[in-house]
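A.,

Following up on our hallway conversation. Structure tokens first:
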């Protein structure tokens, strides 16, 4: 037997699997990467040697209104490390500048005071102006024309009107944008609901190029790059983290060139070969990424890439925040069938996208091919079942349910302990 551990919320789950049934354990090499410097040293070195850009301190000189776009509570960006370094470098040459941290909520809810303090620390929360982006508040937006896709480009005016726009974030594989980080701080980070819906349309989500680890020909990436340039994003600091959410590398500088270098580093660590199996067990990487079912679809896509057709995907996610999207939840709860959901979505044009449609579309794609079992909080079991998935109280029970569904003796198993950290290649 082989014991395998899975991140679950702030804790871990363990499962023993018979070695003769285990096809493979797919792990990002980032989890084994040993940095030879401290997290702070890594970030400071990146800031001191920006890629295709002047140093942030030089860009900040003589600027009066500086805005830093920062990821929200759903992203494991170690802002308690990165933000003080960014602020220190800005204040080195612009001590009197008005600095605003603009929290890039995208389509998510606002962060709470407790979440902000957990992210930045009390000192920053109490001394720096922090604004919460609200994609549904049109008063916050300014119209900058059209995206390459034709959608209206409405972006947060605090960001666009800044003398200097900076963004912090992290780079990991992303299930339709290719990679997180870089341009995503602007779109969807600080974009209007209207703009996010246009970019996340059914046509783009359905594109063979809108997949984990791919930027080439990706229509969503193209829109995002355009929006970041239009917003005037001048400098980024993006980190790469391991399974413990510790910084193992950092990339600072030009919004596109620094990000591209970071994605190449992540790709070199995250790429794994698929090990097709009857049952694939995965997670969404633990807290904060597994706070809800909505986010956990990301982890399912890694399993999707290594599960035999008609197989079973098991995903362990704490889902302390419930389903994570009312429209997302209701669509599955109220539909006659998953096929109906997919047909309805694919019939919509670029300007007919509805909230949460993209996550719905990807989950429907998965559910049309596989049975999905969620291991999560017992209080969430009715939500899980309402959405057409099965629920299990622990991994052992989930495996037994999967075996029963397959009605096959000793079905093979592939394990992906952290589904959001890998790029599964067939």
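Then the amino acids I'd put at each of the 426 positions:
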């Amino acid at each position: 037997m082989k014991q395998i551990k899975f991140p679950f919320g702030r804790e871990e789950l363990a499962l023993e699997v018979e070695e003769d049934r285990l096809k493979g354990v797919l792990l990002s090499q980032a989890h084994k990467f040993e940095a030879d410097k401290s997290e702070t040293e890594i970030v400071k070195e990146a800031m001191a040697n920006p890629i295709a850009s002047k140093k942030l301190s030089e860009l900040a000189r003589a600027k009066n209104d500086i805005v830093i776009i920062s990821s929200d509570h759903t992203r494991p960006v170690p802002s308690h490390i990165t933000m003080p370094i960014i602020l220190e470098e800005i204040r080195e040459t612009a001590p009197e500048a008005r600095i605003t941290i603009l929290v890039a909520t995208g389509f998510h809810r606002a962060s709470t005071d407790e979440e902000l303090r957990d992210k930045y620390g009390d000192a920053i929360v109490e001394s720096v102006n922090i604004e919460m982006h609200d994609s549904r508040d049109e008063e916050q937006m300014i119209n900058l024309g059209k995206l390459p896709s034709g959608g209206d480009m409405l972006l947060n005016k605090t960001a666009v009107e800044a003398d200097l726009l900076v963004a912090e974030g992290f780079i990991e594989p992303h299930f339709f944008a290719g990679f997180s980080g870089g341009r995503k701080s602007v779109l969807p980070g600080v974009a209007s609901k209207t703009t996010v819906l246009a970019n996340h349309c059914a046509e783009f989500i359905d594109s063979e190029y809108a997949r984990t680890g791919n930027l080439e020909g990706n229509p969503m990436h193209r829109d995002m790059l355009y929006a970041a340039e239009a917003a005037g994003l001048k400098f980024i600091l993006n980190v790469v983290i391991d399974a413990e959410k510790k910084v193992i590398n950092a990339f600072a500088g030009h919004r596109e060139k620094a990000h591209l270098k970071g994605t190449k580093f992540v790709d070199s660590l995250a790429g794994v070969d698929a090990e097709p199996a009857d049952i694939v067990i995965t997670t969404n990487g633990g807290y904060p990424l597994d706070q809800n079912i909505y986010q956990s679809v990301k982890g399912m896509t890694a399993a999707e890439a290594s599960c035999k057709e008609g197989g079973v995907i098991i995903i362990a996610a704490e889902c302390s925040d419930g389903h994570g999207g009312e429209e997302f939840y209701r669509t599955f709860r109220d539909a006659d069938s998953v096929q109906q959901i997919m047909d309805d979505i694919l019939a919509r044009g670029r300007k007919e996208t509805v909230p949460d449609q993209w996550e719905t579309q990807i989950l429907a794609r998965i559910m049309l091919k596989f049975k999905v079992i969620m291991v999560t909080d017992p209080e969430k079991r009715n939500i899980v079942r309402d959405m057409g998935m099965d629920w299990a109280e622990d991994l052992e029970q989930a495996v037994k349910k999967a075996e029963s569904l397959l009605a096959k003796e000793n079905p093979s198993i592939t394990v992906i302990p952290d589904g959001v950290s890998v790029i599964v290649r067939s």
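Residues 100 and 128 are 7 Å apart (CA to CA). Curious whether your intuition agrees with the design.

B.
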